[in-house]
Amino acid sequence: MIHLDTNYLIGLLVKASPEAAVVDGWLGAGQTLAASTIAWTEFLNGPVTLVEVTQAEAVIGGRIIPFGQPEAVMAADLFNKTGRRRGSRFDCLIAATAVLAHAEVATVNQADFTPFQAYGLKLATPPTTAQPPAAPPPVASS
Fold this sequence. Notes:
The protein is an alpha/beta fold.
């Protein structure tokens, strides 16, 4: 499962954006997508229209992963172990939710999440695009 960060939720609504293309690739590969309640809240802060919210919710199949006590404990631990960076609080919440759900995080801001990899976070990588089949070797004439 891949948890989409807020920037992916926004980007998937922009026609021909890199994020939309990557999401299409994941869906084409049969990957399950979701979002943490934290990323979903950031997304809803918008501005977004009801149609855009409905579209994003359809892409993730309504899988909005809750944030509870275990996630809060892990997020605080991540915050303390990675230098107590004031701007990282929401990233800690998103990372903790993904780690406990055994999910990867898809984000445009990979550097913001890299410190959490030492504590079990996996960052999603874009799917590889299928390469066209190689041309058959030429037939030797005799």
